[in-house]
Structures are given as structure tokens and as C-alpha cells.
Amino acid sequence: MTASDISVSNEDGEKNGKESGEPVRCSVLILGSGPAGLTAAIYAARAGLHCVVLEGLQAGGQLMITTDVENYPGFAESVLGPDLMAAMRAQASKVGAEVRSSSATSCDLGHRPFRVLDDRGAVYLAESLIVATGATAKWLGVPGEERLRGFGVSACATCDGAFFKGLEVAVVGGGNTAVEEALFLTRHASRIYVVHRRDKLRAEKILQEKLFLRENVEMLWSSVVCEILGDGEVTGVRLRGSAGDEDRERVLSVSGIFVAIGHVPETGLFRGQVEMDSEGYIMTEADSTKTNIAGVFAAGDVSDRVFRQAVTAAGLGCMAALEAQAFLD
């Protein structure tokens, strides 16, 4: 389905996000079309529920900017991220889920049915809601980063570390995520440079101790990345000093750079309605996708600040659909 396949009665409303046409009523409304959202759609539709998916601004989620995926079960050979998501979308549509190329712009979770407005002016009235809007990696915003993303620039060592077997790489950051990424990479890369703008890490002490014991890790203190180098693939990074030492520059030859300066969960739409932690991740009950609002469930990176893998997101999407079905029953 493309944007042109969706019929909206009021073109001005479609452009401006104003309400138009009759509300779309559904049993389950899923926001987001990554592994969590589409897996939830597959399970909900197969259960006979009227299921509508709003794809969001980045249809397919973060896997759409991932090249080879080697760790998703069922693929002996690596699969391209966009191909994997296209297959999930096709499966969801085949079993009866209605996938729409639009994004939610507002929602009212104060009473059921939940009321959601999208950027095409359509209004949705849903008996249950699955939030699978994901999280976005924070990037450095330096020259070369966007151009080489997926060609040596990554935000996930667990996803891409195996591609750098025996090579030298850099990890940027100083918190728990950066140290965990660096520790994971010691299994694959020959040398890991940890680039941090300060002269000490923010990570937990126990993680720091583990990192400092690894012989193939080198700390580059008081340094920032100002450019990522390479033509077609990463060949190095240009560093400059920080904290008053901006004139100091060097080029570091590496085959990959892992940006580990944090993620931003896409939860702004639900702020003040759904309970979140201090960083904006949606809080769920233990061993569940249930939020503090009955009938609202959260799955994938929008609530998972630890694993952030496609397969765990898919598992949470399955859980959310099953819990939504039980709630509706």
C-alpha cells in the first residue's frame, strides 16, 4: 500500500493534519512498523481482530538503514534490513492487518475508545493501542556520518560487530552504553579506541574496571570526532581536542565507528498520559507489555532500553498482541 492508496475525503485536512472523513474504528491500533509493530500486527490479525497499523515517519523502523542482518533467526545467509521489513509488512498485510502510510500526530488516552489523529487528517477510534514507535539513536552530526551510515558507521555493536573481525574500530561515548559496546567489540575487533570528550567515563565503575583490563582497548581522552573519513566505506576519523584543546587534531585510521551517545525513545506523543522513566522510555509491568493505562501496551525499543534488538522487539510485539487480545476478550 502506498500513500496514494489511502482515501481521505478532505485534501486540505490531509495536508494540514485536520480531521476529515468518518472515524476509523478498530479493535487494535498499532503505532509503528518496525519488528515490534509488524509482529504485533501479524498476531492480532491472525487472532481475528480488526487491526490497523500506522507506519510512522520511518516505515520499517531502524532496520531500514541497516545493511546486512546476520542475527535474525531463520536466515542462514544475511538478509538486508529493508528486505526483512518488506517481508514482515507483506506478511502482516496477507493475514489481514491494514497498514497505512501515515503517522500519528495526537492521541487522547483518557478514555476508551482511544482517539488518535494522523498526519492525513484521519481519526482512529481504537479499543486497544499498541505503542511501537521505537527509539532513535543519537548521532554526532559530523561530516561523513550520514553518508557512511551502514558502511562502517553504526549505532549497534551487537548488530554489526561481527563485520569487523580482526579490524580496528572506534567507539564514541563515555556512558554505560559506550563501555558495553566496546566490551562486546573486544570479541571481534583487533583494537578498539574509545573516544570520549572528557577525561573520565560516566559509566558504572564495575564496567570501567572490566574495560580497563582489556588489552586491545585504548582510551582517547578529551577528544571529539569532527569528521568521519572514507569513500564508500569508513577508513578513519578526524579527531580534535576538547576542553580548551581544540587546536589539537589527529587522524585515526579505523574501519568502523560505533556511535554510543544514547538513544531517544519516540514517546513525545504520549508524555503526560503514559508513565515513563526519566529518559522517556515507557514503563511496563514486569514480564508484560502493559502500561499504566488499561488497554495501552508498549513494545520494542520504545520500552526496551537494554537489548534494542530486532528479535527482542518482535518478541515484545507478539506479547503485546496476545495481551491486547486477552484484554479485549
Please explain how this structure is put together.
Helix 2 runs parallel beside helix 7. The protein has seven helices and 19 strands. Strands 1, 2, 5, 6, 7, 8 and 19 form a seven-stranded mixed sheet that branches. Strand 1, helix 2 and strand 2 form a beta-alpha-beta unit. The chain is of the alpha/beta class and 329 residues long. It is elongated and about 60 Å long. The N terminus is likely disordered.
Strand content: 25-35%
Rg over CA atoms? 21 Å
Major pleated sheet: 7 strands, mixed
Share of helix, binned? 10-25%
Structural class designation: alpha/beta
Number of beta strands:
19
**So what's the overall shape?**
elongated
Helix segment count? 7
Low-confidence stretches: 1-17
What are its keywords?
329 residues, seven-stranded mixed β-sheet, five-stranded parallel β-sheet, elongated, disordered N terminus
Lay out the secondary structure.
Elements: H1 11-16, E1 24-31, H2 35-46, E2 51-54, E3 68-69, E4 79-80, H3 81-94, E5 98-100, E6 104-108, E7 114-118, E8 123-131, E9 135-137, E10 153-154, H4 157-160, E11 168-172, H5 176-185, E12 191-195, H6 205-212, E13 217-220, E14 223-230, E15 234-241, E16 249-252, E17 256-259, E18 263-265, E19 296-298, H7 310-328
Parallel strand pairs: 1-2, 1-8, 2-5, 8-19, 10-17, 11-12, 11-17, 12-13
Antiparallel strand pairs: 3-4, 6-7, 7-8, 9-18, 14-15, 15-16
